[in-house]
Amino acid sequence: MKKQIILSMAIMASLGAMAQTDGWAKELRHRLLLDFNKSREEVKAYIRRYIPDVTDDRLDAWERTGVLECLTIDGEKRYFHNAAPNLFRVDEDCRHVKEIKDGPFSEGYEDVDRTHVPAIMRQARKATGWLAEPKRVRVTYTLTVKADAVPAGETVRCWLPFPRRDVNRQRDVRLIASTVSAHVSPPTDPHSALYMEQVARSGQPTVFQETFEYTAGGEYRGLKASDVKPYDRRSDVYRRFTGEDGRHVVFTPRLRQLADSLTRGVRNPYLKARRIFTYIAENYPWASAREYSTIENIPTYVVENRHGDCGQVTLLFMTLCRLSGIPTHWQSGFMTHPGHDNLHDWCEAYFEGVGWVPVDQSFGIPSYAKDDAERYFFLGGIDSWRMIVNNDYGQSFFPSGKDAEGKTINGQKKYPRSETVDFQRGEVEWSGGNLYFDQWSWNIAIDYLP
User: Which range is the signal sequence, renumbered to this chain (predicted)?
Assistant: First the structure.
C-alpha cells in the first residue's frame, strides 16, 4: 500500500482524549513535519551512494511496499528523515549491496552480551530467584530546555526517568542529587518519574539534572514447554493482560489472522510464544522509528512497513501473544551496555507455573548463539545491562497525586506528552503548553561501579 497519507481525523482519533485538546491538530502537524523532513532528491542522493543508477520507478516501488517511508503533508510528499538509511536495513537486496561496500553490519551490544549472556546462563541456575551477574551503575541524567523556550518568570515543570523500585531485577535504588528539590513517584506507579520545577530565566537554558545509583541483574530460567501449565482463565492476571487496551494493543482482523496462522495447532503457551518470537525476529528487522505519537496503531504499522524499532516490535509481540491467550505487559527504560547505551523497550510474558518472565523481542535471536538455549535466551531471559523505568505505557504521571513519601503534589501532566506511549527521555511543560523534543535536549552519563 502506497504510504502517502494526508493529515486526517483518523490519526487524531487514534490518540483518544488528546485529540480533543485545543491545538492538537497543529501540534500533530508540527511533529510530522519534524519527522518527515527529507525531499525526494535528498533521499535519492543517499541511495546513489550505494546504487548509482537508481531510478524514480524503483523509488516508487519501494514506497508501495512500505520500505521507503513517506507521507503527503499539505499536498507535498515528504520522506522520513531516516527513510534512506532504513531502506538498507529493511530491503534484503539493498542490505546486501550496502554490506558489499561497507562490510557486514553488527550490533555493538552483541559484542558485550557475547560473553555476558553465557555467564548469566551458567550462574542463574544456581542463584536465588534466577538472577545473576549483578551490575551496579551510577547515572547522571540531564534535560536542558533551550534558552527562552519559556518566557522568563514562568515555571517550567519537568519529569525525568527514574529507576523502578518494585521489580526484582533492580534493587538498591538511591537518589544521590538533583538540581532542585525533587519528588519521586510512588514505587508502583506505571512510569517511575522524578518531578521538579524551576523558574525560567531570560537568555539562559533551564537545566534539570538527577544523579542516582542502582543495581540490576540478569535473569534466566532455561524455560521449557514442560515447565508451563494451563492457564487459570479466571485469574486477575489472565483477564487483565490478555485483552485489548484500547491504545496500541488492538485486535484487528489482520492481526487476528496472523496470530492464528502462527499458533494454529499449538496448545502449549510457551511454544506459541516461541513461534511468535521467531516469526517477528526473522521477518521484521530493526529500523529507525518515527515518533510513536504520530502512529495510529503501532503493531499494524510494523506489519505494513515490514520493520520496527524495539518498542514497535515489542507491541506486535504483545498483541499477538494476547490474541493467543498469553498474558503480556510492557516494560522499558534504557539499555546500559558499556559503549552502547540507548533508549530501549521490551516486555514481560506470564506463563502459568513459572510467573512473569522478561522478553526482549528486538534483541531477538543473537548472531552469536551457539545452541537453542542461547537462540532463545531473550524469550524468558534478559541481560543485566538495563535500567527499568516503566511497567506500562501511555499512563498518567503520579496518578495518586502523591510522591514516594506520601506528600500530595501537583505532579500530573496537563498537556499532551511529547512521547505519548513511552517514557524515557523525560517530559517538560509550562502554563503555555507542552515543550516538544525540538525545544530541549537530553543526556545520559553512566559510570560503571565495582
Answer: 1-19
**pLDDT band, residue 22 (cuts 50/70/90):** low
Same domain for 236 and 384, yes or no, is: yes
- Element containing residue 71 per DSSP (H, E): strand 70-73
pLDDT tier for residue 126 given thresholds of 50, 70 and 90: confident
Q: Which domain holds residue 238?
A: 220-390
Residue 187 lies in a domain: no
Digit-coded pLDDT (tens) for 136-161: 999 999 999 999 999 999 999 999 99
Q: Parallel, antiparallel, or unpaired: how do β-strands 170-178 and 206-219 relate?
A: antiparallel
Question: For residue 104, which of 367, 369, 375 has the smallest C-alpha distance?
Answer: 367
Domain boundary among 338, 356, 390: 390
Give the three cell numbers for residue 32: 510530522
Report the predicted TM-score, pTM, of the whole model to 2 decimal places.
0.94
Q: Strand order of the sheet with strand 183-184?
A: 183-184, 193-199, 155-161, 427-430, 433-434
Find out whether 342 and 319 touch, Cβ atoms under 8 Å.
no
- What's the rounded Cα separation, in Å, for the pair 187 and 403? 9
* Centroid of chain to Cα 7: 24
